[in-house]
Write a structure and sequence with these properties.
Blueprint (H helix, E strand, L loop, with lengths): L18 H4 L20 E4 L2 E4 L3 H24 L22 E2 L3 E2 L3 H7 L8 E7 L5 E8 L3 H16 L1 H8 L3 E11 L5 E10 L4 E11 L2 E10 L7 H14 L2
Antiparallel strand pairs: 1-2, 3-5, 4-5, 5-6, 6-10, 7-8, 8-9, 9-10
Length: about 250
C-alpha cells in the first residue's frame, strides 16, 4: 500500500445537497429567474440518504399541549352549572293606580300565602321565591321549582293547576265562615304553557279578597305567580296579570 504522505490523498466530502433533491425551489445563484424562494428546510445525511430534520419531541409537545387544552375545555364545560332561574322585577307586576311595587330578595322555601292552596303539591322539592309589595294592601309573590326532567316538571305543573282549581272547595270545608269562588281565566301561550286562575274569598265578618294565580313551565322549571288585594273579581287586572305571567316564564331561562 502506498502511504498517503507521498501521494496526495483525496479529500472525502459529503455529497452536495441540491434543491432538486429536497423537492424545493432553488435559491441563490441556482434560483431560476422569477422563482419564489421556498421556506428553509434543514436536512441531515444519514447513511447517504437525505432526510429533513423534523423534531419528533417538538411534535409530541404540541400534541400533548393540544390534548391538555382540549381536556381542560371539556372539563370546564362539563362542570359548568346551569344558570339559576331568573325572577320577575318590580316593574313586571301589574301597574298599581296609586302605589309603586317593591321587590324583596330571592329566598329559599315557599311563601305562606301559597301554602294555602299548594301545600300538598310541594313536599320534596327545593324551591325559591320572591315577595313583592306596595304601600297599600296589594301584594304579589313568585315561586320557582326546578326538577330533574321535563316529564316531572310537566307533571308538577299539572298537579299545581289541579290544586288551585280545587282550592276553593277545600277552603270552605276547612272554614265554615268562609265562602270561596273559583274562576278559570284560561291559558297563556308562552314556552311550555301557562294557565291563569282567579280565587275570591269572603269571610262572614265582611273581609273580601281577590287572588290571581298562574302556573307556567319552561323546560324543567315550574313557576307560580300570585297577585292579591282586597276586593272581588271586578278588581282583578286579568289582562295585565297574564302579561306578567308570560314575562315570568320567559325570564326563567
Amino acid at each position: 500500500m502506498v502511504p498517503c504522505r507521498r501521494i496526495p490523498c483525496p479529500v472525502l466530502r459529503p455529497p452536495r445537497v441540491t434543491a432538486d433533491a429536497l423537492g424545493v425551489t432553488p435559491t441563490g445563484p441556482d434560483r431560476p429567474s422569477g422563482a419564489v424562494v421556498a421556506s428553509h428546510i434543514p436536512v441531515r445525511i444519514s447513511r447517504g440518504t437525505l432526510m429533513p430534520k423534523h423534531s419528533r419531541a417538538g411534535g409530541l409537545t404540541v400534541l400533548s399541549l393540544t390534548g391538555l387544552m382540549l381536556g381542560v375545555t371539556l372539563a370546564v364545560q362539563a362542570g359548568a352549572a346551569p344558570a339559576a332561574p331568573k325572577f320577575l322585577s318590580a316593574a313586571d307586576l301589574p301597574p298599581h293606580p296609586s302605589s309603586t311595587w317593591t321587590a324583596g330578595k330571592v329566598t329559599d322555601g315557599v311563601p305562606d300565602e301559597l301554602q294555602l292552596c299548594l301545600k300538598d303539591a310541594l313536599p320534596g322539592y327545593d324551591s325559591r321565591y320572591r315577595d313583592f309589595r306596595t304601600d297599600l294592601d296589594t301584594s304579589a309573590r313568585q315561586l320557582t321549582i326546578e326538577v330533574g326532567t321535563k316529564t316531572k316538571a310537566a307533571a308538577l305543573a299539572t298537579r299545581m293547576n289541579k290544586e288551585i282549581r280545587t282550592c276553593a272547595d277545600r277552603l270552605e270545608q276547612g272554614d265554615p265562615d268562609l265562602e270561596a269562588t273559583y274562576k278559570d281565566y284560561g291559558k297563556v301561550a308562552v314556552e311550555e304553557g301557562a294557565r291563569v286562575h282567579g280565587l275570591h274569598t269572603e269571610h262572614s265578618f265582611g273581609a273580601t279578597d281577590i287572588h290571581l294565580l298562574s302556573v307556567g313551565r319552561d323546560d324543567r322549571t315550574v313557576t307560580v305567580v300570585e297577585w292579591s288585594q282586597m276586593g272581588d273579581f271586578a278588581d282583578a287586572p286579568v289582562k295585565a296579570f297574564k302579561k306578567t305571567t308570560a314575562t315570568a316564564v320567559n325570564k326563567l331561562h
